[in-house]
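To whoever picks this up:

The parser on our side crashed when reading a file containing two proteins. I've narrowed it down to the boundary between the first structure block and the second sequence. Both blocks are reproduced below exactly, byte for byte. First block:
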Amino acid sequence: MLISFRRLIRYPKAESRRALGSFAPGSNYIPTGSRTHPLVTCTMVPKRKRSAVAPQQDIQPELPERPNATPRRSGRIVKKPSEVSQSDAYPSNKEALRAASSQTRGKKKQMLSQGEDVYGAIDGLREMEDNFRDAVKRQKLALDESSLCGTLNTTDEDAPFMPRPIKANPDTVLTKSEKKLLKERAAVKNEINETGLENGAHEDREEGDAEEPDANAFKQEGSRPPPVNSDYLPLPWKGRIGYACLNTYLRQSNPPVFSSRTCRISSILDHRHPLRDPSQPEHPTKNRPDKDEPADVARGKKYVEALGLANARDIVKMVRWNDKYGIKFMRLSSEMFPFASHEEYGYKLAPFASEALAEAGRVAGELGHRLTTHPGQFTQLGSPRKEVVRNAIRDLEYHDEMLTLLRLPEQPNKDAVMILHMGGVFGDKEATLDRFRENYAGLSPGIKARLVLENDDVSWTVHDLLPICEELNIPLVLDFHHHNIMFDKDKIREGTKDIVELYPRIKATWDRKGITQKMHYSEPCSEAITPRQRRKHRPRVMTLPPCANDMDLMIEAKDKEQAVFDLMRNFKLPGWDRFNDVIPYEREDDNRPPPKVPKKKQRKNKNADENGEDGEPEEEAKPLPVIPESEVGMGGPDNRVYWPLGMEEWLRPKKREVKNSKSKGDEIGDD
C-alpha cells in the first residue's frame, strides 16, 4: 500500500491508523508512513574499518520487505516484494506481537513523545505559513485601496517592495478621512520645501540631494531650447585661475595641510573642563576633559582659538604651494575660525590671530596671490526676520576682520572681497530688495568696500541684480553655471553667447571701485537634466568661458586644484609644465613611518652554534630620508602632484590586500 507523504505530514495520526488497519492482525511490521515502528528490530552490519577485514556476522532472519512507498537509503540487497509470500510478510501470531510489545514498551513511549514534539512543530510551522499568506493578501489589498496607488508610478512587480501607507495595517484599509490626511501632509511637505528654497537654503546642497522627477519633468526639461554658447576662447591667457578653500593634495599630506578645522559647540563646552592629566596631551579616549572638575569659559575659548590658529598657519603653506605650480588665486574658508560669528560663543580675532594672519598676508602679497572669501547661504541681508539680519551683519563683520588682519598691500587689499548671495525671495522680490537697501545702508564702511553680489541658481538672475548693483555701487560677480540654470528667458537665451552683451555693464561695477574683476565658472554633470540636477558641479571643467584673457577666474569644481591643472594641460596655460602625475599610492614628500619588514625565521648555522653564536640576524628596515618641514607636501623632486580624474585614492597609502591562499588540493583541482 502506497502512502502519500503530503497527507502523512498534514494528517499524521489518521494516516498511521489507516496504514496499520490495512494489514493483518498480529503483524510485527509497521509501515514507513507511521510515526512509530518499535516492533521492527534488526542488527545492522557494523561499519567496516579501513585497516581491518570486517568480521563475520551472525546470520539474522530476513525481515519482511516494506511496501515500496519511498526509495530505500540503504545499499543492502533485499528481496523484491514479489518474492515474499503473503504468509511470510504478515504472520498472524498475536502472542508474538504482544510479547514484542511488552519488551519495547519503554522505548515506544519515548519515541511517541519525540514524535509528538516533531509533528507539533510541523503543525506550528504550517499555521505560521497560513497566517503569513493571509497577512500578505491583506497588506496588498490595503495598498491597492490606499491613496498611494494614485501617486506612485509602480508596476505590479514593484508593488510588494513599496512602503506601506500611514495607518494601513494588515487588518484594515485606509478610510476616506485617512486618505484626506495623507493628501494634506503631502501638500504641507511640498509647501515647506518650496519655502526653504525661497528662504535661500540653496547653497552647498548639491551633494547628496537626490531627485526623482517624473516623466513630465524629464520631458519638459529635456525639450528646452539648446544652449547657445560662444566660440570665443580667452587665449593667450594672462589672468589668474584659482580654486576654493581646499587643496586636495595637501589635505592628504602627513601631517595634513588645510584651513577648515572645526568643532561642535558641545566640544567647546567639554573643553571648558581641564584634562584628566594636564601634563599629557589630549587623547580621544585616554585623556579626555574631566567634567567632574569646575568649568572655565576661558579654557573653552582657548581650545577653539587653537583650531583657528592652526588653520591660519596652514594658509602660508597653501599659498607657497599654489605659487610653485602657477596658481595665483584662492578663496579662504569661512570656517577658518569656528563659531567666531556666533551670538553666544563668538569671539574677536585680534589679538590672538593677528600675527598668524599677518604672516599669511605678507606671503600672499609678496607672491602676487589674490585672496577672497564667500560667506555662507544663511548670510542674508534681505530677510524679513530681524534675527537673521543681525546674524548676517555679525558674520560679515567677522569676514571683514579676517581680511583686514591679513594686512595686504593696497591693491590686493581692495581685491580681497566678500561674495554674497541675495538669498531668498520671501514671496516678493521688490520687498526683499527694499529690505536689502535698508540693511546695506547700516553696514560699516569696511564691509561696504568689500561686499560683492553674485547671481544664484534658484531665485536671482543677472538681470535682477545688475540694477541694484549699479544703484548701490556694488560689484557684480557673474557665475556662468548659475546663469545657465537661472536666467530671464524673456531677455536672454541659455548659454554663454547672449550674456556677453552685458559684459560692459558688469565690468563697470568693478571699475567704479577700483577692484579687479573676477568671475566664477563651473559646469554641470553630463547626466543632469532637471535644474536641481544641474546645480551639482562637475568634478572638473572641460573648457574656458568667454571672458577677458586677463580675468581672475574662480573654478568652482569638486576636484579643486586638480581642475585647474586640467585646464592648464588642455589649453597650455602658463604653468602647465610645472607638475607631473603622482605615483599611485606612493609619495616622496612625506615623512611616513618606514614599512614593516616581515619577520623571517632565523637559519641556524652549525658552525655558529659550535662557536656559541646566533644564526643569521633578521633584516632591519632601512630608515627613510627625513624631509624638511618646508618641503613636506610640496611634490618632491619630480613635482608629482597631479592625480587623474577619479584617482584621488592614489594620494593615500595602498590598503593591505588579504589574499586567500588556496590549498594544494584546490590548486590541483583547478589545473
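<<boundary where parser fails>>
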Amino acid sequence: MVCPERGCYQHAVISGLTASVAYVQTIFNPFLHDDIPAIIKNPDVQGKTTFIEIFRNDFWGNSILSNTSHKSYRPLTIAVFRLLHRCFGNWPLPYHATNIILHALVTSLFTIFCQRSVFPHMTNSSHVSLICGILFALHPIHTEAVCCVVGCAELLAALLFMTTLLMCSNFQSQTKESKPINKEAVESHNVDKITSGVGLRRRTKNNLDCKMQEPKILETVNDKPLTNNCNIFVILLTSALAVLCKESGLSVLGVVMVHECVEHYESLKIKKSSGVKSIIRCFIYVTWVFIILIFRLWVMGWSQPVFAEPDNPAAHCDDRLTRLLTYSYLWPVNLGLLLYPVNLCYDWSYNTIPLVTSLTDRRIFWSLILFFFFTIIVLCIAIKLKKSKDQHDSNLRPLVLGTSMLVMPFIPASNLFFPVGFVIAERVLYLPSAGFIVLLCTAWIEAGVKFPKWKKSLNRMVALLIVFYCIRTVIRNMDWISRESLFLSGLRTNPWNPKIRYNWANYLRDSNRSVDAAAEYAKVLQLYPGYVAAMNNLATILEETPTTMRKAEELYVRVIQMRPWHENAYNNLANLFVKRGKYDDAVNVLVRGVRSSANYMAHAQNLARVLVSRGKVDKAEQIYKHIVDHFCLKKSKRNCNAQVTGLLQDYGSLLANKGDRRESLKMYKLSFQSNSSDLESMAKFANALAEAGRVEQATQLITYAVGKDKEHVVDMWKIAATFWKMNKLKESKRLYEISVKLHPENLELLGQYAAVLFETGEHAPAVKLLENLTARDSECQSEGVWRNFASIHGRLGKHDEAIKRLLRCLEGLESVTNNSVSEINARKGKIKCQLGKHKRDLSILFARRNKLEEANTLWDQSLQDLKEGVSLNPGDKDCAITLKQMTNKNTST
C-alpha cells in the first residue's frame, strides 16, 4: 500500500484537474454584470491611472476616501487585472482562464491541507482528502466566484488562505521535530492512531512499517528557531496579502489560532508542554490582526462605507430587534445554499428576503435550528475532548477545524461587526464551503463507524452527491454564458427582485425591444416605486412617442424631486424640452442641474451641441456662458479643471464660427489652463493662436507639445493647415511631415500634405502622391484628396482633368452606404461647387479662344452645379458667394 504522503500530491492533482474540467466551458464567456464596472470601466485596470493609484482607490477605481466609495480595498486583485489588461487588453478569455486556474490551485491546496492537517490520523486519510477535494471542486456554490471575473478576488484570497494554512501545518510539523520526544510515547500514540478512527481496516504490516518511520524522525533533536521564525513571518505575510485581495482573507488568522490550539492539545498526549510557545504565537497572530485592522481603517479614512438601503435593507432599519432577527435568519439561508445549492441567483438585494420583524415570524424556527446545530457541534467537541484524555479520537481535529473554516470566513460578511453592501452573495461562501465539506465528510465517516451496515449505502450517497454537484455546476455554468441567460436565470429564481427585473428591462431596451422593456420597467416600479433608475429609463422610452411625451416629462420631474443630484434626469428632461421646442425651459432645467451637481459638464456639453445642430446657437451660447461664468470666471475658479476642458473647446469653436476670434481665443486659453497636460487642448489653443496671427507663440506651443509626446498630439495636421492658409509653408510642411509619419493611413491628411508639397514647388512628388491616393480611394471616402488633386490640375491649367477627377469622385460617392444621408449630401455639395468653379474657369478659357458655344454650355453647367452644391451643402458660404457673383454677371450680360 502507498503511504499517504506519497499519494498526497497525486490526489491534489486529480482534484485540481476535476476543478478545471468542471469550469472549462466558461472560458469563452464574455464580461458580465459586475465585470463591466470592475474591468471595462475601471481606470485602474485600463491603465488610465498610475500604478500607485491602485493602492489609493477602491475595487471599482474610485478614491477610497470618497463618501460614495464602497471601501472595498483590494489592490492586489486590481494589480492582477491590470497585468492581464496590459498583456491581453479587454479580451475576456485570459481573465476567465485565470479564474479557472486559481480555482484548481485552491482545490489542490485544500486537498493537501485536508490530508496533512484535517484527517492525518485516519488510516485512509488520502482517500478521504480526495473526496473532500472533489466535492470542493464541484460544489455549485462556487459558480459565481469562478464564472464571474470579479470573483478573482475570492479566488486569490482563498489561494493565500490555503497557503497560510499549509505553512501553519508545516510549521507545526517542524516544531514537533525540533524537540526530543519519548519513543515509547510516540509508539503508543501511533498504535492509537492505527487502531482507532473511522472503523476501517487495520493497518497491514507494510502500512505499519511506513508509519513507523515517524519515530526515527521524531527522535532527532534539532532545534530550528530560524526556520520556525521564518515560517511565522511567512504566515503573517501571506495572511496580509490575502487581506489585500479580499477582506475575508483576514479570517485565516482565526483558523490558524484554532489549528495552533488543536496541535498543542494533541501534543500533550506525546510530551509534556507548558504551552508558552503556543500562547506567544497566538499573541503574535492577535497583534497582527489588530495591526491589519488599524491599517484598513486608516486606508478608509477612519470611516465606514455607506450603502444604499436596497443593498442591505436590514442595515438601514432603526429597530434593533428587526436587525438582530434578520441577521440571524441570514445564517441558515446561507447554510441552506451550501446544503441544497439549487436556487442560486446572482443578486439577492432589495426585499428578496423580507425583514424578520417580530418573534412570531415562522422563519425564526430556522435560526433556532441552526443555533441548535452549532450547539450540538460544540457539545460533540466537548465530549470528544473529555474522552480523548484517555483514548485518541481521530474525528476531533476535523470537527474543530471544519467548524472554524465554516464560521470564521463568513463572519466578515455576516454584518456582525459592520454592515456589508449585500443581503446574500454566493461569492462569499467560497471559503466557508471548505469547512462545510470537511464537516460533511466527517459526518460521513462517523456514520460509517457507528453504523457499519450502512457503510455501502453511505458511500453510494456520497457518489450520488458528487454526480449531483457535477450536473448542477454544469447547468449553473450555462447561466453565465451570456447576459440574457444570466438575467433570465435570476428571474426564474427571484422574480420579485426589482433589480433583477430592472437588469432584464435594460437588456430588452438594448436589444431594441422597447415595448417589452417599458412593460418590465413598469413592473419594477410596481415592486419598488422609488426605483429612480427604472423611472428615468422608462421615461427615455416614453419620450420617443409623441403621445407619451407628457408622461415622460412627469417621470423626469419625479426623478429630480426624489434625487435632486440625478444628473441624467436633468439632461434627459432638457433634451425632451428641446424636442418639444421649449428651448427656454431646457436652458432653465440645465442651469438648475449645473447648480445641483459639480459633475455636469458632459450633459451640458451634449445639450449645447443639440441646440447648435438645431440652429439655436444663441441658446447654446447661453448655456456655455452660464457654465463658464459659474466654474471659471467667478469665486469658484478652482473648479475650472479638466471637467470643463471639452466644453470650453466647444464654446471656443462656436465663437470662432460667429467670427468672434478674440473671445474664441480666450476660451481656448481657458481650456488649456484648465488642463495643461491635455495635448488636445494644447493643440487647439495653438491652432487658435495661429489663426489669430500669433504664429510665433503657436509655433512655440506646438513645438513643446510635439517634444512632450508627439504620438498623442491630436489635430496637429489641422494646425499645419492653419499655417498653410497663412502662407507659413515652412512651418506647415514640418508639422505635416510629423503628422504623416504618425498617421500614414489618413488619406485626408496625405492629400493636404501633397497640396503643401505642390505649394513649395515639389510638383512631381505631389502629383505622384495624389495619383496613389485616388487609386486607393475608389469610393471617394476622402473627397478632400480628390478636390486637392482637382485644384492642382486647375493650377496647371488642366481644367478638363480636374472635371474628370471630380466626376469620378461623384460616381464613387453613389456607392457609399456606411455614412448618413446628410453627410454624403454635404460631401457631394463640396464637390459640385468645385466642379462648377472648374467649369466656369474652362468656360472663360473657351470664350477667350472664341469657342462661344462651348463656353456658354459650360457656363450654364457651372451655374447648375453651383446651385446643386448650395442646395446640398447650405453651410458652404464661399459656394453661395460664387453662385451669386455668376448670377449677377449673367443677368448684366
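After patching the parser it read the second block fine. DSSP finds 40 helices and no strands in the chain. The two ends are 117 Å apart (CA to CA).
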